[in-house]
Structure formats: structure tokens, C-alpha cells
Amino acid sequence: xxxxxxxxxxxxxxxxxxxxxxxxxxxxxxxxxxxxxxxxxxxxxxxxxxxxxxxxxxxxxxxxxxxxxxxxxxxxxxxxxxxxxxxxxxxxxxxxxxxxxxxxxxxxxxxxxxxxxxxxxxxxxxxxxxxxxxxxxxxxxxxxxxxxxxxxxxxxxxxxxxxxxxxxxxxxxxxxxxxxxxxxxxxxxxxxxxxxxxxxxxxxxxxxxxxxxxxxxxxxxxxxxxxxxxxxxxxxxxxxxxxxxxxxxxxxx
Length: 253
Hints:
By secondary structure, the chain is α+β, with helices and mostly antiparallel strands. The protein has seven helices and nine strands; from the N terminus they run αββαβββαβββααααβ. 28% of the residues lie in helices and 18% in strands. It is globular, with a radius of gyration of 17 Å.
């Protein structure tokens, strides 16, 4: 029991320190107003979406659900609609069995553009995602305190995911298709998590400020997301859907 409590405190501290560092990096000279849901009726982005992502260790699909976190869902879909956001993002933070974090565009001007957008109001925590109930394969925004979400994301990856869910920003808007032992999450767990990843995490400020041109020569082993695109959406009034395999055809990541 003592070991588990100590580990819980350690992981929580690691998470909050890392996210707080990133939060400082996002800060603009003038704090923008906090944003609510930019698509409240789902007419633009739908109520659910399947987003296919390519990575250096294989593909995965994010099943995003507006009902889980309406504000986060709409921002995620806006990010995915930006052709300059996803390509060649580095997995700059990866703690095995806990989480993998990303969301910094390859070019610093794109990071600055998204950092200038209003930070998101926190979505309401659903009971199934409270602390202790977080499970592997959930996708959420990272943050550094109340109403702090911008464009940094993480995926819970293993048994220690249950330590997540206690912070206001840790409200999942999606899950990895295939479940906790499917090929998608296996490809994510295969992302590089060795010494270079531990060092790269310390340079979030430089990464945000200078982009991949700074990080790649120093940390060539880091995994990356090669691109993401929407393969299917469900509009308001539809039942929960399954992945349409034909939507995958003809796309290169």
C-alpha cells in the first residue's frame, strides 16, 4: 500500500510538473479570454469522429466523442482540420505505462498561432473518468491548471493511467480504437521511451519556441506522428457508429 501511494504521488507530481512547464511555454503577453464550445450544435464537426493517425511505429485511430467533452472535442477537430498542425509532431514526453504526450507542431509559427487562441474552459468531468477510473487508451488535452488547455495532447498508455483524472483538464474526448490491447494502442506503446525521450521532455520550452529544427538533431530517436485526418463523422441524431474501413483507402500518411 505504501509503495502504491508513493508511486501515485510521484506520477502525479511528474505529470503536473511537466504540464506546468508546457503551460508556461504557451503563455502569451496578454492572456486571451477562455473559450467555450465553438461548435455547440455539432453542425461543423459532428457528434463523433474517427481520426486516423500515422506514426513511425504504425497507425492508430482516435474515436472522438463530443458527449464526453464538448469543448475539448471541438478544439481537437479544429486542430485536425489544420493541415499544418499534425505532420511530423514529435512524441516529446513518454512515460511507459502512464502516458505519451505530443501536440507541438513541427514549425514554431504554427505553435504560436495555436497558443494565441483562447485557452479552453474545462469540460465537466464525467463520473467514469474521475481519478482512479482513467483507463489506458484515453485521449485528453494536457494542461497546467484550471482552464489551461490549448493544443497539447496526451494518450494514457498503461496500468498507471488510473492515477490520471484528478486535474481539471484531464477530461477525455476520445479513445483509441481497438481497446486497451488492440493494434492501435500497441503501436502507441511502441513509441520510443528511452533516455532521449527523458531528456527531450526537459526541453519543452525550446521545442515550442524553435520547433523540430531544434529537436531533431539532438533527439533523432524520438517517435513522431506523421499525420492525421478525419475518416468518418457522425452528425447530430445518429447512433454511435463503427469505423468504416472503406474510408481508409487512398490515403497516405
